[in-house]
Amino acid sequence: MGLQIYVDGKYYEEENAKISVFDHGFLYGDGVFEGIRAYSGRVFRLKEHVVRLYRSAKSIHLEIPMSMDEMEEAVLETLRRNELRNAYIRLVVSRGKGDLGLDPRKCPRPTVVVIAHRITLYPEEMYQEGLEVRTLCTRRSLAEALNPAIKSLNYLNNILAKIEVINAGLLEGIMLNNQGYVAEATGDNVFIYKDGVLLTPPPSAGILEGVTRGAVMELACETGLDIRESLFTQHDMYISEEAFLTGTAAEVIPVVKVDGRIIGNGCPGPVTAELISRYRALANSTGAEIYV
Ligand code: PMP
To answer: Which residues are marked as active site?
Structure first.
């Protein structure tokens, strides 16, 4: 049996899991999504992801046609049907089928899709050696235009940034906000460590408030680190002692070079290493149980 995909309350084989070409998610990127991980039979921070999905939907006037509990159950059931214990889950809610105009009122019912797939992990050496990144020309969307706090299907801003990353032969890059402060990476949040303080840009910098970012901030507190949400610049990154990115897929990944400047001594530092190991332990031991 192939992959079983949830579409509007029913399960379909991959080749039969289809949505309309009139779906405004397809026509306009009108919708919201989440990327979630399951580790060792548990879904990490499922509730937080579902809450963020519903908040993104609220912000774009999209009413999801099921409760949060039902959404959590749809995620768990999709994992069960595919007999997955370790997986990447993509939850998508689009505006649904409408006409060719922009008007969302022409879309009577949102489309809900849940895809659970085996996770393709970044190579382990990236966690040992760290990433090289560069600052990108594409600025993160202005919150007043398309707020990065909304995890919307309209990801072209990030894709344009990712194309720059690919053209530079790298795996990730740093996006600045319209004022020139560090915002986030194309699909990850950013942290730097300097003078005994761990810094990450505040939501007001125009970022997606990552679930991984939240977990790492909690872990940093537990280890007694001084953790602050603060604006910082490219220069602050260049002179930092350590830097790392966080995201559901990437987890906690060290950064060792920014725009050609070597961070610290060019190897992942002790604060980053500690947070990587604590994050992995947390992700592998907590979360909503899939098989109960
Ligand atoms: N920023 C952006 C733009 C993202 O798309 C993501 C998710 N891939 C993140 C940050 C990290 O969020 P999370 O930790 O919830 O995966």
So the answer is: 151
What mean pLDDT value characterizes the chain?
97
Copy the structure tokens of residue 90.
Answer: 């993509």
Burial class of residue 127, CB neighbours in 10 A (0-12, 13-18, 19+): buried
pLDDT of residue 183: 98
Residue 135, helix vs strand vs coil: strand
Looking at the domain that runs over 125-283, which CATH code has it been given? Answer: 3.20.10.10
Q: Enter the DSSP assignment of 52.
A: H
Class of the CATH domain delimited by 4-117: alpha beta
pLDDT tens-digit profile of 224-256?
Answer: 999 999 999 999 999 999 999 999 999 999 999
**pLDDT digit string (tens) for 6-26?**
999 999 999 999 999 999 999
pLDDT tens digits for 193-203? 999 999 999 99
The distance in angstroms from the start CA to the end CA of the chain is: 23
CA distance 289 to 292: 6
191 backbone dihedrals φ, ψ, rounded to 5°:
-130, 145
User: Does the Cβ of 184 fall within 6 Å of ligand 1?
Assistant: yes
Residues 6 or more apart whose CB falls under 8 angstroms from that of 141 comprise 147, 148, 157, 206
Note the pLDDT tens digit of each residue in 165-203. 999 999 999 999 999 999 999 999 999 999 999 999 999
Output the residue whose Cα is nearest ligand 1's atom 13: 210
- Does residue 93 contact residue 53 with C-beta atoms inside 8 Å? yes
CB 248 less than 6 A from any atom of ligand 1: yes
Domain boundaries in the chain?
4-117, 125-283
pLDDT for residue 120: 78
